[in-house]
Structures are given as C-alpha cells and as structure tokens.
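## retry 2 of 3
previous attempt timed out at serialization; input unchanged, resubmitting
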Amino acid sequence: MRMLLALIPAFILTGCVSQYKVVVDFSPELQPHFVEFPTIEVDIAALTDAEADEVKQMGVEKYFAPGSGIRQRLNVQTCFFSKEERYTYVLPSRAPVWQTWKQKKPSTLMVIASLPHDPSMSPQADPRLLTVAIAKSFIVARSVYIWVEPKRIIRVTKAAYKKGEKDSPKTEQWIEIRESR
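## retry succeeded, writing output
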C-alpha cells in the first residue's frame, strides 16, 4: 500500500498535459459594437510553440480571413457573440477535443478574437490574441475565464455567471448558455 501511495505523485507529475475548463463571456460595453460588426468570433485552441508562433506572425486579420485554412488545421473551438444572442461559452476540461489537442503535446492555450482592428494597436502585442501557458503536469483541472471587450480579450479571475443559477453551465460538452442578466 505504501508503495502504491508513493507512486501516485510520480504518476501525476509525469509529462501529462493539463486540461483546462475555458469559460468565455463578453463585456456589456461590447454590445454597441455589434452595429458595425454583427458577429464576433472567439477561437480557442491548445497549440505547440510552432503553431502559436505561426498564428502570432500571421496576425488576426489573416487568421480569420476566409480560406486561410489554419482554423480547421488547428482544430479550434469557436464561440459566436452577436447583438441578438448573449451566451457564456464553456469548454469543459473533459471535452473530447482535449484528447486531440493533447496528442500534439501543446504548450499554449490560445484565445483569438475577430474584434475590429485598432490602428493604435502594436502588432507585437495584439490585445485580440491571448496566450496562456499550459502546465506540463496534470494535477487538477484548471479554469481559465476570458472576458471579451470592445478592443481586447483579457483573462479574468472568475466567471461572469454565478454557480447554482438555473442557467449555470453544465460541464459535459462544449455548450452555449443563455445569460439572464
């Protein structure tokens, strides 16, 4: 029994890639911007260093350009925000896409939004693209909360929805949850 207990920490810390529950919501300040841009897409993907560099060098406009093919190749999960619909998106740590992503041993969780280009933005630090380092050991599933604002996406410390509400997200699959705010 002692031997088994001694092996558990070694098993937990051996080269597994952590999986994350990713929650994406948008700021109320984004609502007026839907007049000019009726739909905003937010992609989430676990990427290798080379893939993350490719996306950064490509830039947001080329990334979202029709026919670029990169989104399909990276097996992204996409959220859609619009004037008519308000959702909180949840990608559970148990989602099947994580199995596909883990096969390539990703180092980065990337979130990229099709927000309008602001000429004052630095191409080297585009605020429409967010990266989160993926831990190389699996201890406990982590949560990443993303907030989409008019000119940027940011990581926040907690979800915009409240647990226990009748519309609170389920965690079995990639889902859309209608907000009751």
